[in-house]
Specification:
Layout lengths: L6 H12 L12 E12 L3 H7 L4 E7 L15 E8 L3 E10 L2 E11 L3 E12 L2 E15 L2
């Protein structure tokens, strides 16, 4: 099991925190999904950036249905998400986080096309070592049944 947040976990966090803006379900077909994600970080010292640079991450996850029951718990502390657009095919959000170690704000977009998904989210962070920017991009495809 991957120790990072999976693509679907990120969407579930966003979906739960922003609430249901419409009665539509996301256009994601249940089944086994493979998601590839990449992350780029700029604005940090080069030795730190080299330590955090990772190859694209590939995950497989079974999505059982479109009625997600997810409690983000600790992951949502200090962060406020606001949906700027939500439909069965697209979710766009803004996020603001405040903590003792620094502040961050960002936005993201996810596109749902039945058997494929794609999107990105960016965070601009202000911490003890100065400003940094993180961009996370992802693409997913349904492989078949679980």
């Amino acid at each position: 099991m991957n120790k990072g947040l999976s693509f679907f976990t990120i969407l579930l966090i966003a979906g739960v925190l922003v609430g249901t803006a419409s009665a539509e379900e996301y256009n994601i077909n249940p089944g086994m999904w493979e998601t590839t994600s990449t992350m780029e970080i700029t604005g940090m010292p080069s030795e730190m950036a080299n330590m955090m640079q990772k190859p694209p991450m590939v995950e497989k996850e079974c999505v059982k249905d479109k009625n997600y029951n997810f409690d983000p718990g600790e992951q949502s502390k200090g962060c406020t998400l606001k949906t700027t657009r939500q439909s069965s095919k697209k979710l766009i959000w803004d996020i603001t986080c405040d903590s003792q170690s620094g502040n961050a704000n960002g936005n993201g977009e996810a596109n749902f096309n039945g058997d494929t998904v794609s999107g990105w989210f960016e965070m601009n962070m202000q911490g003890p070592s100065g400003p940094m920017k993180m961009r996370h991009s992802f693409e997913g495809k349904r492989l078949g049944s679980c």
